[in-house]
Amino acid sequence: MPQSDIVIVGATGTTGSALRAELRNRNVAARALVRSEAKGAQIRDSLLEPITGDIGDPASLDGAFQGARALFVALSPSADALALNRNLFAAAKRQGVSHIVRISGLHPDPQSPSLLVRQHTALDEELRQSGIDFTILRPNTFYDNLLRHAAHIREYRVFHSPMGDAPQSMIDARDIGAVAAAALLEKGHANKAYDLTGPETLTNTIIAGIFTQVLGETVTFQPVPFAAARAGMIANGLPEADADAAIELFTLVSKGGEGEVYPDVERVLQRKAIRFEQFVRDNLAAFK
């Protein structure tokens, strides 16, 4: 396989997986940064070349990024996200990468009560000041997060959330992957930021109603106290600091302000964003 000039960081995550699928559909080759050869073997295909490197070890990134034109970055939120993203930016600059597409979040605010929002805001600004062309993608919550509740929905026809019935203009990760591919491959997206949402404002009650309609059986939403949600995340192995950061974000979202629908998906893709009902139908085997 000829060496691709696109490197994906976060290739096994939700948005990275969506980007890989979109590039495959376009018959475009890419490289994927992985920590181990074993991890790389799980995702290798005729168009994807895994390359080993550790974002916590800046020296290991130089070889991984050699010859790259563009970098896609989607790192999971964490207490050390600032340092890890900075490692990537610095290595990209050393290796002459000319364009970085980064997954951020809606509504940047350096004074936000949410650590994760403050991190995204700071990193977006650092990327702008890096001297490298950028495209910042700021998506709302993913439909795909509900796949974590699929077993409960299948067995008990119920799902839980600590965010109450707050409005959210949620988005399908496939749309994020498609916008990312456009930014990486097409002209006109350099030094821009896109607010990415679905085509409708949803609440958990509305989501339950759509599940009920599509599955043909009543599905209900049950709220969960923040303390119980935090305890559950820690019980599942999330570090306490990361659980606290997640609860800060959930608290912010629960207060409203995340329901606005933005036109950027449609403008970039020249089609409507995927509706939640279509997402459920496309994943019927998981929920049915």
Characterization of this structure:
The chain is an alpha/beta fold and 288 residues long. Helix content is 45%, strand content 15%. It is built from 13 helices and nine strands. It has helices spanning 14-25, 37-43, 58-65, 81-94, 115-128, 150-156, 173-185, 204-215, 226-235, 240-254, 264-269, 276-282, 284-287; strands at 6-9, 30-34, 48-52, 70-73, 99-103, 133-139, 158-161, 192-196, 220-223. The strands form two sheets. Strands 3-2-1-4-5-6-8 form a seven-stranded parallel β-sheet, with helices on both faces. Strands 7-9 form a two-stranded parallel sheet. The longest helix has 15 residues, at 240-254. The model has no long low-confidence stretch (mean pLDDT 94).
How would you concisely characterize the structure shown here?
The protein is 45% helix and 15% strand. It has helices at 14-25, 37-43, 58-65, 81-94, 115-128, 150-156, 173-185, 204-215, 226-235, 240-254, 264-269, 276-282, 284-287, and strands at residues 6-9, 30-34, 48-52, 70-73, 99-103, 133-139, 158-161, 192-196, 220-223. The protein has a seven-stranded parallel β-sheet with strand order 3-2-1-4-5-6-8, sandwiched between helices. A two-stranded parallel ribbon has the order 7-9.
